[in-house]
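Limitations
The structure tokens in this dataset are predictions for the assembled complex, not deposited experimental models. Users should treat interface geometry with appropriate caution, especially where small molecules or nucleic acid strands are included. An illustrative entry is reproduced here so readers can see what is and is not provided.
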Amino acid sequence: MLFLNINHFNELNMKRENILLGHGSGGKLTHDLIDKLFVKYFSNEILDAQGDSSILPIEGEQISFTTDSFVVNPIFFPGGNIGNLAVAGTVNDLAVSGAKPLYLSAAFILEEGFSLSELEIIVKSMADDAKAAGVKIVTGDTKVVERGHADKVFINTSGIGILPKNRMHISSGKNIEIGDKIIINGAIGDHGMAVMAQRNDLNITSEMVSDCAPLNGLIDAAFAVSEDIKFMRDATRGGLSSVLTELFEGKSFGVEIEEDAIPVHDNVLGMCELLGFDPMQVANEGKVVMVVKAEKAEEIVLALRNHTLGKEAAIIGEITVSHPGKGWIITTIGGKRVIDMLAGEQLPRIC
Amino acid sequence: MLFLNINHFNELNMKRENILLGHGSGGKLTHDLIDKLFVKYFSNEILDAQGDSSILPIEGEQISFTTDSFVVNPIFFPGGNIGNLAVAGTVNDLAVSGAKPLYLSAAFILEEGFSLSELEIIVKSMADDAKAAGVKIVTGDTKVVERGHADKVFINTSGIGILPKNRMHISSGKNIEIGDKIIINGAIGDHGMAVMAQRNDLNITSEMVSDCAPLNGLIDAAFAVSEDIKFMRDATRGGLSSVLTELFEGKSFGVEIEEDAIPVHDNVLGMCELLGFDPMQVANEGKVVMVVKAEKAEEIVLALRNHTLGKEAAIIGEITVSHPGKGWIITTIGGKRVIDMLAGEQLPRIC
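Predicted assembly:
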């Protein structure tokens, strides 16, 4: 397959005085904002680790803690709604840190005039997904702002999980070794393109469906066959590219990905080519990237494929001794292309 | 003093199809929305307790967990900004549950075009307050929405604290007895009226200043002199009335408050009378209501008064055997008035 890699936006930086949509992209600008503002002031040893969840020592236990706000537009899309996203997103941030997700908060910012019946559908979706994922929503908050000062509904979920001591290395990936394999549990770009198609009311014959799902069950299935999982991250905003960049950036190893090995659905690929998007930079909401011991890779992929959410799981690349701190894609025609994080904004409000 | 008690809004109910500003008031409509929608779907034994924080059993420890979104308008006001509020609000929710606040999350929803320098002031305020309160901001999130789809900045903070086993009764107030005294740490209504004055650019000679502050240090000072504190709640949206209503509603005891005993600053009282507000229903961001053993009440008030944030602390009433499930104010002229929760919206986006 051919990945187009056109960036519609020049790289922007913090010197601009005002917030740009790109500051919410999950790509370079978001990272800049985090590093140059939030980490600058909030800095402490736990925050600075910058995992998807933070690991908190509480009375001898290790607790994972994470937060995410959801502002997706439209709030209903093929495959889910903002409520499904709010539960899956936070459950997944906990699960990829190696933790068992236990408790969620749910805080709603509602626009005056928003339909209570739509809110009820969303709340019910959250309840159903929380139940399915085995987590409890234990605390909440509701704020209402005047018409025109929000957009229907924004949801924040924060989550708490318990992190087994033998999984504390997963967030940092500090046990990664040369030769380790990189796995993904299925096709990329479904969520981003499903929301995009819905938002623009595109008349597409082959409907795209978001992959939005809590992944803790799938991850448990992988651990059941092997504890040799050395790193996990869910590929959300910024797509697979952002996760891979976070994986290799500043490290003593490199990453090599086989373009042919990355699962992408034909309809997503077609739409990406049409619109000039790189599927590797398109958001997912049910995809986990794992770095695992080479000898266990096939076994873990089989375990993933036996789970509903991993039927298209594949080994997509490996950790290399060459080009440390960089990532390369080996393209279908045998060329090499650098893996790059999204610079500006591709799809605002994708989650 | 005379408390005006004019409600500008009729009571509204969930049968209306759309979200009203009053659903965010912290009064009756908010309680309706919580009970009839969120609790209906999310119900579990932890959420149903409906404390300011939820108490989570994690591997033998008791963890307090809370969440709050902040949408105050304007974002800067005399005495603080939305960042101060976001830290104080969540620290206070933990502290009034009896917990020692430890960790916060910080999630930002930013409007495209919002000033980065204003954001920096807000973030710095949060860092300063977190440090002063002895909590760490350990995880965060940033989303950006298009111009006109949010209002500058909304902040969600969630918080985790550890709850000593001997303070587990505080959230529910289950140890409350007839004769217990009701204490507040100072004057009511400052936050609401300061924001109100700022928002409407009222030309007021005697400036009102928000009481926004983290109260965990003050609460520690009270516990240092006595563990006989049986219930605490911070009086935020919905004011003192909402806290008192939550205290007596459905209980086998009543509440009696001496109107003369409630501290209110003259400028706040004047503005309330002018605008037809009841100070008891106006928001605070640095006020805790405590129910304590009668014999220890004076001692606890003295401890509060020795702290910067409790100089005007006072005993304002007591738990009574008469009129169970109801609350009464004994007015200055010797009359009686029922304590009632705010029905609709008084001051939208006060926190």
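Some entries come with short summary sentences. For this one: DSSP finds eight helices and 14 strands in chain A.
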